[in-house]
């Protein structure tokens, strides 16, 4: 099935299952706090690996002890799709393995 933009209701329903994630502007967003700058950088590298595997790539901003992520789907004009939520679920599971709490 072709990728389609999700409705606001669909986005809200999916966000209810993803604590910490938000819909801001036209993107799904999440901010992570880590125990050190190096730990944050390690999470960025691990996220990049998953994003290449999925062939879907968020913007990633590495800060001091922090990682800020935002994603939408370029191929449907920058709307949020199932692909963005698929990525969000994978990243969230990954963040747990880096010691991030829900
Ligand atoms: C050719 C390649 O599959 C596409 O350019 C992919 C790569 N990563 C992507 N990432 C995001 N966020 N949106 C896309 O539409 C997208 N498209």
Outline of this structure?
This protein has 102 residues and is of the alpha+beta class. 41% of the residues lie in helices and 21% in strands.
Structure characterization notes:
The chain has 102 residues and is an alpha+beta fold. It has a domain at 35-102: Gyrase A, domain 2 (2-Layer Sandwich), CATH 3.30.1360. It is 41% helix and 21% strand. It has helices at residues 8-15, 37-54, 82-97; strands at 22-24, 27-33, 59-63, 66-71. The longest helix is centred in the middle third of the chain and has 18 residues, at 37-54. The chain is globular and about 40 Å long. The model has no long low-confidence stretch (mean pLDDT 97). The structure holds the ligand C[C@H](O)[C@H](O)[C@H]1CNC2=NC(N)=NC(=O)C2=N1. Belongs to the pterin-4-alpha-carbinolamine dehydratase family. This is Putative pterin-4-alpha-carbinolamine dehydratase. Pfam families: Pterin_4a.
């Amino acid at each position: 099935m072709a990728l389609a933009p999700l409705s606001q209701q669909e986005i809200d329903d999916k966000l209810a299952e993803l604590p910490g994630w938000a819909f801001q502007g036209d993107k799904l967003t999440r901010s992570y706090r880590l125990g050190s700058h190096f730990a944050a950088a390690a999470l960025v590298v691990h996220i990049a690996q998953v994003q290449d595997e999925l062939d879907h790539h968020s913007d990633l901003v590495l800060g001091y002890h922090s990682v800020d992520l935002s994603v939408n789907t370029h191929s449907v004009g920058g709307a949020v799709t199932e692909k963005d939520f698929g990525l969000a679920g994978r990243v969230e599971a990954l963040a747990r393995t880096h010691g991030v709490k829900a």
